[in-house]
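Put briefly, the fold is written as integer tokens. The lines below illustrate.
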Amino acid sequence: MEKLKHYINRIEEKLPLYEISNLAVSKSAIGWHIDHSFKVINAVVTALKNSKPEEYQWKFNKIRLLIYTIGVFPRGKVKAPKSVQSYETIFLNDLILQFETAKSGLLTLKHLDKNANFNHPIFGQLNLKQTIYFLQLHTKHHLKIMDDILKK
């Protein structure tokens, strides 16, 4: 959980840079990656809070095992679901609000049942521990893209 907190704080540092882009790295500006990262965190925290721990059932997932073992998402292989993409102009104030929601969401995670769960479209049903690891990997993935955009 501390890694996720660290990654969220690193994203906060990039908020003033939200308009910067580098098409050689990504078709989207830093703001899109920030927005997407926070949308994912906030949606997943909501899903965990609303889940029914008694319905969690572990199932083997080969792709999850591979990605969780290597600890990185391959770039450009998966398109984000529409629910966590932004198709409108991104404003700094909106990013700040999403950041605040993500920070408070981390506090919520500490109080959830270990079998609180989230259904990922590729990895399947994840319990709390698996979901936190997913959020860490996902956020780290987008931070790396943002860092590469800034390298120019």
Notes: DSSP finds five helices and two strands in the chain. The mean pLDDT is 95. The helical segments are 2-14, 30-50, 62-70, 92-109, 128-151.
